[in-house]
Amino acid sequence: MNYISDTLFIEPLKIDDAINLNKLLVSNTERFKRYLPKTLSENRTLESTKFYIVKRHEAMKSKCEYTFTVKDKASKNLAGLVILKAIDWKNKKGEFAYCIGKNFEGKGYMSEAIKATSLFAFQKLNLKKLQIISHKNNSASIKVAKNNNFIWQKTLKNEFTPEGQQPLDMELYELTYER
Asked: What is the CATH number of domain 3-128?
């Protein structure tokens, strides 16, 4: 998927993004560490980021996960990531994970990116249901879900355990494709 608008562009993660991805993740460690510990741990050095990108390409080839970069159109800087993961081809559903760098928050980039990748998931991958799982205190993530018409379904008890912390209840939002 490739998407371009007046403010941003979205494309599959590529090896040329290694330096900028590493910078984004390292410079936003405090911001991302609670909900993206695995992604951060896989991107501590430039070499580990390159390996991470190779693994993401393999996942896209095998159609088990899709990782896209969100870039600011004017500066071409990497603003964030959108990952379509936990794809269940039998039940035609997938889950979004995403992050946006501090310098790009509040600009509507992630809402626009989720809208574009949702269309890709529905129209190109033929998925029927998309999910966003977020903690109730992550108001920015919940805003992204609501901005894209994802509907709250239920609280998932002890769904996610941040490193060194107690399990957290998470909120499940879903968007169903209707033609």
From this structure: 3.40.630.30
